[in-house]
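Cont'd.
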Amino acid sequence: MANTFLLFTYLIFIAFSAISATAGNALSTLDHDNAIPSGSNFTFVCDRSRYTSLGLNMSNFAFCDSSLSYDVRAKDLVNHMTLHEKVKQLGDNAYGVPRLGLPKYEWWSEALHGVSDIGPGTFFDDLVPAATSFPTVILTTASFNESLWRNIGQVVSTEARAMYNLGRAGLTYWSPTINVVRDPRWGRTTETPGEDPFIVGTYAANYVRGLQDIEGTENYEDLNSRPLKVSSCCKHFTAYDVDDWKGVERYTFDARVTEQDMIETFLLPFEMCVKEGDASCVMCSYNRVNGIPTCADPKLLNQTIRGDWNLHGYIVSDCDSIEVMVDDQEFLSDTNEDAVAQTLKAGLDLDCGIYYTNFTQNSVRQGKAREEYIDRSLTYLYVVLMRVGFFDGSNKFESLGKDDVCNKEHIELAAQAAREGIVLLKNDNETLPLSSDKIKKLAVVGPHANATEAMIGNYAGVPCRFISPIDGFSRYANVDYKIGCDVACKNESLIFPAMKAAKSADATIIVAGIDLSIEAESLDREDLLLPGYQTQFINQVASISKGPVILVIMSAGGVDISFAKSNISNIKAILWAGYPGEEGGLAIADVVFGKYNPGGRLPVTWYEAEYVDQLPMTSMQLRPDDRLGYPGRTYKFFNGSTVYPFGYGLSYTKFKYSLTSSFPSVHFKLNRFQHCYQLRYETDAFRPPCPAVLTDHLPCDDHHFNFEVEVKNVGSRDGNEVVIVYSKPPEGIVGAYIKQVIGFKRVFVLAGSSVKFKFRLNLCKSLHLIDYNAYSVLPSGGHTIVVGDDIASFPLQISFSSVEGYY
Ligand SMILES: *[C@@H]1O[C@H](CO)[C@@H](O)[C@H](O)[C@H]1NC(C)=O
Ligand SMILES: *[C@@H]1O[C@H](CO)[C@@H](O)[C@H](O)[C@H]1NC(C)=O
Ligand SMILES: *[C@@H]1O[C@H](CO)[C@@H](O)[C@H](O)[C@H]1NC(C)=O
Ligand SMILES: *[C@@H]1O[C@H](CO)[C@@H](O)[C@H](O)[C@H]1NC(C)=O
Ligand SMILES: *[C@@H]1O[C@H](CO)[C@@H](O)[C@H](O)[C@H]1NC(C)=O
Ligand SMILES: *[C@@H]1O[C@H](CO)[C@@H](O)[C@H](O)[C@H]1NC(C)=O
Ligand SMILES: *[C@@H]1O[C@H](CO)[C@@H](O)[C@H](O)[C@H]1NC(C)=O
Ligand SMILES: *[C@@H]1O[C@H](CO)[C@@H](O)[C@H](O)[C@H]1NC(C)=O
Ligand SMILES: *[C@@H]1O[C@H](CO)[C@@H](O)[C@H](O)[C@H]1NC(C)=O
Ligand SMILES: *[C@@H]1O[C@H](CO)[C@@H](O)[C@H](O)[C@H]1NC(C)=O
């Protein structure tokens, strides 16, 4: 019986390869009714006329009965399938089941900062040649503007939906990337929202909601049937941030992570993505965590994402993760069949790759994989496809078409995002903004002066257009462009013409920095300096320049530009522009000439160059290690000097803060089930009688503190201010963070006026810490709430008493 079946599939395979090899046209016609997307006239699965044209009667298939719940329909669909049919749906390229009228579906599309054609589910051609390409995520994050993050998600999903209608894109997007930038060398910093787990999680929740949410359905009772505009996916789960550093590759890297770091840093953004963003997908990563490949770890997938966080959606592997597990990691000496059994059991629903498709049937036959797990995974997958309207259509979006891609408003939002993100790092003597009345001739030099592709980074699509820096500046002055040096800057041959240009111009803009040849997926940095002769080039141009010199840095990670920062340098102003997207040059020029007053803040610490000599990239820990001489990582644990600290950023105006709080102390009376928890202190002098209580034991949901911030613009220009709120723990607790972000808000304030707004923050979330044993605890004693860089603060006292009396 089994042999006959095998022979049968084998014959089908032969027959199909023969067709594809000899009669390509025949195959594509044959494929056509069944292919999504590819420019067909596909509407949605449960379209009665489609069934009729396939010679099928839709009434025979309960999964097309829209009066039933998605869950019942998905199960019905799965129950119609043979094992062979089921396993063919478990790869990103799902084969479909012609006899059920189920078409093919390609799950893999990407939309990290605009619809991208990286995944095979999406492509550009004459019908849709391009989509809006926003700044890369690290720059958009620097805006610290939650509504911008959401807004970009909304525009991207509108373009995605329009492209889907035209058969050019899928409905399931494997974006955003939300790994924390633990180390400044990480090559994928550009894709991520920076080094702070709370900000990363907040970005994730907003971007996911922007992509997924349909107005009015944000708070559905049954989240498993909540309609989605498109499906979004948070990746790469987890502790993934070594790409290729000195030969250590992500495929084989085993991240050794303490539970403390896991909960505090690596899991938090994903938890927020799932719980607050209600993401419908999580992607596991290539690496192992403490020996176990993430995609094969039931504790991480089934227990944490599915169980603890209650994911409404599916879990997908990174592309070829299972193959990596077998071939590169040789995990448990698994055979292909062992590996797919392991990952299915762990809770991996969909394989980006061919392993599930090729090996699951045999794995079941060999008694390894359980068919029940396959059914469960397929059900999750089809529920998501139902939620995005693949089965029943989606009235709301059917009218979207060509005019909804790369339109004026979308392009303007890309420019706006870049303006909001750009960070002013230095502005001696108020050199900026330049005045177009005074500056007639502008030298624009440097490797990125005519940047185009470099501005859109990776995971991009084809942009609507590019506005390079020279294009942008040409709108304000006569531009004399000389490249001076390319990014690698291996020799000095082109420097002289750039110096000549600087010598005769009213001002000089040097657009320098790095690009994907230095920091990228599969490419971590080894140092934090500008490549080759770039520093020398910048100094030479600056020293000879007639007018003021403005340095613009394009990069994702921090660059040690101490030489330009110091005030003995001729460089009067410095801007960081990330990778600013298709409109980047316009945004930079708008900022330099004061059409827009910058308000962005650095989402990562800019360490000094020596930092990377002090610790290997492969050490995962965030806290300093005195024994090994490792400094800490991120502003939360690194106390050394920096080129520019996390959260840094200037404005053309000045702001003053004042704070009103009415919450100086909170007291908890403990009952006999609430125990004091011991913490470790530097000395006993710091130790209060009741050091802490587990947050699980406290009525945390009921305790918030409120305060009001007034931001006054005391300068003469309208401006944008990012107010970042931190908490500092009581003194003396061993291993506590220095401070941590608990809230932020970007506000626009007219010159001479002020705005007031309230923060309402959860006490436990804001003041808790994860102790050495990975417990979440609320420490007693004097916490401090700090607004801005120590601009304003107030103390917040936490105390506990028992039924017997005060401690
Ligand atoms: C799609 O529909 C259009 C207009 O109804 C028709 O001209 C075209 O041939 C159809 N294309 C396919 C692939 O069926
Ligand atoms: C389709 O199936 C339904 C229910 O089985 C039946 O009532 C109907 O007559 C069928 N229609 C056609 C065209 O065969
Ligand atoms: C934040 O983003 C929104 C949406 O894009 C924008 O309208 C608003 O002006 C921005 N706020 C500030 C203060 O920049
Ligand atoms: C998955 O989690 C569920 C409940 O959270 C549990 O009942 C089940 O045993 C877990 N399965 C595996 C394979 O760990
Ligand atoms: C999976 O199966 C396809 C079709 O039989 C074959 O071309 C491919 O090489 C297989 N891949 C692996 C990794 O076994
Ligand atoms: C600012 O300008 C004053 C007066 O022109 C000059 O003395 C001073 O050195 C300048 N400072 C910087 C940091 O450029
Ligand atoms: C700027 O770059 C674009 C795209 O690479 C190129 O077409 C154009 O010629 C360049 N402009 C100058 C002035 O070199
Ligand atoms: C110097 O660099 C430029 C630009 O990269 C390159 O075209 C040229 O060949 C190099 N010259 C020498 C002598 O290496
Ligand atoms: C140069 O910078 C140092 C340190 O930031 C500062 O103390 C000094 O006043 C500055 N000098 C001038 C001329 O601005
Ligand atoms: C910074 O941390 C190191 C290592 O924990 C410690 O030895 C040092 O005293 C700290 N320095 C400051 C200024 O707090």
